[in-house]
Amino acid sequence: MSAVAAQHKSPDAEARRAKQAKIAKSLGHHLLVLAIAVVVLYPGVWMLLSAFKPSEEIVGNVNLFPETWTLDNFSTAMDGIGGVTFWRFFQNSMLLAVASVIGIVLSSSITAYAFARMEFPGRNLWFAMMIGTLLLPFHVVIIPQYIMFNNVGMVNTFWPLLLGKFLATEAFFVFLMVQFIRTLPRELDEAARVDGAGHVRTFFSIILPLMKPALVTSSIFGFIWTWNDFLGPLLYLKDPNLYTLPVALRLFVDQTSTSDFGAQMAMAVLALVPVMIFFLVFQRYLVSGVATSGLKG
């Protein structure tokens, strides 16, 4: 009887052990993900809470939460610095971001259609050279570009930051759209050609409306990258009235006098709000755009 009972109990015990092992594995996985999330989110949480601290509590204080909560930092950030208000910096950043998105969508979509659908001599060579520019560090071309824009009198204007966007110099977005267009059946082009449509009509009436996921994905990346760009505006903009928010943040740190870290943290939080809103509104298009663009060769 004991041997028979042991045989009946053995499967139950093994099932319990397997269930316990599965629970332990799942618990360990969730704890690992939670630990990674804490490490990744900690700088953002620290910045957010520091915006409510007096400046003297931010540096050299190990406490995460403020000992004294204050909104003075946000008031100082809104007043701006050097006679230029926060809204002026915000307006400059928004102007550059929106104009960059418009330039990227227009120029990159047209260029992508040419590479994906039109036959012309050296198409593959030009496409490979365009992709090759992705391997070229931005710092390599800083000096030649600055000299060129300085010679034509464009320094201290927004043109050096926008002109390339309207000339399809952003190879990443062109590549993204080319891959998306290649997933569209060529029968659509052939049907339009039978009806007498040329490349212009085919692009604007057929291809462009179907490119919505790729266009929205490019718009999201273009907006966020332009909004967060620091080196470009720092290099070309000299007038504080033209500064963007990332450059304006630098003004609150003065190595020769007292730095207002509290106002800097508050302005950083305010600068993140439009990016977060833009991302949350269009995130579903971002996922679908990346998923459908693929890497079809």
Write up what this structure looks like.
With about 300 residues, the protein is an all-alpha fold. It has 14 helices and no strands. The termini are far apart. The longest helix has about 50 residues, at about 1-50. The protein has helices at about 1-50, 55-60, 70-80, 85-115, 125-130, 140-150, 160, 170-180, 185-195, 200-210, 210-230, 230-235, 245-250, 260-295. The protein has two domains: about 1-50; about 80-295, MetI-like (MetI-like fold, Orthogonal Bundle), CATH 1.10.3720.10. α4 (about 85-115) packs antiparallel against α11, α8 runs parallel beside α14 (about 260-295) and α9 (about 185-195) packs antiparallel against α10.
In short:
The protein is an all-alpha fold and 297 residues long.
Layout: helices, strands, pairs:
Elements: H1 2-50, H2 55-58, H3 72-79, H4 86-117, H5 123-132, H6 142-151, H7 159-162, H8 171-182, H9 187-194, H10 199-210, H11 212-228, H12 231-236, H13 245-250, H14 261-293
Helix pairs in contact: 3-14, 4-8, 4-11, 8-14, 9-10, 11-14
What sequence of helices (H) and strands (E) makes up the elements? HHHHHHHHHHHHHH
CATH class of the largest domain: Mainly Alpha
Count of alpha and pi helical runs: 14
Q: Percent range for helical residues? A: over 70%
Q: Under CATH, the topology of the largest domain is which?
A: MetI-like fold
Poorly predicted tracts of residues? 293-297
The N- and C-terminal alpha carbons lie at a distance of: 69 Å
The largest β sheet comes out as:
none
Number of domains: 2
What portion of the residues fall into strands of 2 or more residues? Answer: under 5%
Number of DSSP E strands: 0
